[in-house]
Amino acid sequence: MERQKRVAAIHDISCFGKCSLTVALPILSAAGVETSIIPTAILSTHTGGFENYTYRDLTDDIMPIVDHWKTLDLHFDGIYTGFLGSFEQIDIMKTVFDKLRSDDTLIFVDPVMADNGKLYGLFSPDFPKGMASLCEKADIIVPNITEASLLLGEEYVAGPYTKDYIEGLLHRLHERFNAKVILTGVYFDDEKLGAASFDPEKGIVDYALSDRIDGYYHGTGDVFGSAVLSGLMNGKTLADSVALAVSYVYHSIERTKNAATDIRFGVDFERGTKELIGE
Ligand code: PXL
Q: What is the arithmetic mean of pLDDT over 93-107?
């Protein structure tokens, strides 16, 4: 049997509301990937639509965890970062990458900081500069269109988009960050929504679009990123991993919509995990 892949997932734990580590850990595990975690903070809920949430910062615990791991001589096939709460955590991630990576480690950075043309309330206007400096260290970045424009210092453009715009954005991101790029929130009309990816080795842009389900469902970016990384760790191409993730997110939203769950509570990704392993 092939060696099991191992990923280090570095995100916050939002105790209620299904995102970040409470999504990355179960999805990667369900896909057969061993998943070690470094929690960067513990919140009672995520910050999207809840008030009075608790926030315990765990910045001081990150390096001691990494330094202990170093003594165990662990090999990581992937390092996956998402929501980071401060510039300090961004800087620490650069050291974490240097300490934990081997020659074949995939550095997968989701620059979680904004959506729908707006930076999340928690972040100062200069936060994107910090996130951009982390993306410079990545092999793959997974911004949505708002995050992509912030990373490039460009004006946000609202959709529907043209292929020229999407492909221009992908190429500018690739040139700026020297990484493979997956862009989420791509749509050309009101019917379909999904992602576009650019793999420089292949030289073309691939699209994966599904039917659009209206409503802003929280945590879908993390479900998407975790599913893409699952696909990659299981040997799929970038384009196939993105297509798998778009379909998985679509089905997760569909189940949630049918159940009429509060959209802040996250999506029902749990009852679809078989899709991750092609069943
Ligand atoms: O899903 C991204 C995310 C992760 N963690 C926290 C968040 C958010 C988005 O709002 O608030 C704490």
A: 98
